[in-house]
Specification:
The structure holds two protein chains of two kinds. Chain A is of the alpha/beta class. Chain A has nine helices and nine strands. In chain A, helix 5 packs parallel to helix 6. The longest helix of chain A has 14 residues. Chain B has two domains: 66 residues, Orthogonal Bundle (Arc Repressor Mutant, subunit A); 46 residues. Chain B is built from five helices and three strands; from the N terminus they run αβααββαα. Chain B has a three-stranded antiparallel beta sheet with strand order 1-3-2. The two termini of chain B are 29 Å apart. The relative contact order of chain B is 0.11. Classes of the chains: A alpha/beta, B mainly alpha. Chains A and B meet through helix 6 and helix 8 of A and helix 2 and helix 3 of B.
Chain lengths: 233, 125
Amino acid sequence: MSELVEVNNLTKFYDKKKLALDHMNLTIPRGRIIGLLGPNGSGKTTLIKLINGLLVPTEGEILINGKRPGPESKGCISYLPERTYFQNSMKVSELISFFADFYQDFRPERARQMLANLRISEDARLKTLSKGTKEKVQLIMVMSREAQLYILDEPIAGVDPAARDYILRTIISNYSERSSVLISTHLITDIEQVLDEVVFIRDGRVLLQDSVEHIRESRGKSVDAFFREVFAC
Amino acid sequence: MAWNLDSDRPIYAQILEVIQLRIIAGQYPPGEKIPSVRELAAEAGVNPNTMQKALSELEREGLVMAQRTSGRIVTEDMEMIRTTRNQLAREQVQMFVDKMERLGFNKKEIVALLEQMEEGEQLQR
């Protein structure tokens, strides 16, 4: 069986001038929770958009289950973008029907359970919700799909610590040996215990891909402390 | 016994210690089932593969046993639980002695101080 995601020699220029990804190589195996870590402007979101087929590579390729991004890969990737894209006039309940129509693998009962646990009313209109609550709703929708790959771009930045714990626990209990989760974030301390591996990227290249346990063992420090050292300004 | 995990040590070793302590303290009694990997991982907020690794190590040590059907049970070998308890106690005492030696106490002085404190407590009562 081919790897879940293979990134080969991937290069992306914006406007022929700005180099965002520079001949990047990366493999995402099945059954892992992986942190995508790097400073602002290092290429995290560009890579994520390329995997989702929202951008086209300048050079190189991305293979998901051995195939290039397309309708098939969109059917098995559940993506949380860094910005919300929902219609503000929609109710939470309408959003659930919307997702159920759109994605075959969406599980409405799972979404309703999580909304109830976080005490978010299905009758509420999105525009009446706070920024943090809107982010929670969006993450619940994304995690309620039975996808092979979950890609979460800055999923916990705007939510309070208690909800953050709930979200991380949700990611852990959703975990299966067939699916993987790719999380991009700056808040390393909060998530490093949950991760199998981390990928450090800088200037559009992979600087390092290693397991969290190996970094702690060999460096005697947390991934967060190691990140600060590697990316010291 | 909560999962207070340090940020600078391997997570695997730390969750191993917590589960050992829970077995020694009887929170997971001999012969009883312990929670599943997924439940324990969610409770501790750690990666399921890391939890799996810790439980496999406990299995290798013999403190827990895989059941034919599903899940794991705590050993009923009380001798093994006692041995693990003594081993952990020795490690704790060693750490304490190391700290005291850094403060300039020798073993005799440490024992004298312990006895002195014991008497003080008895006087207070």
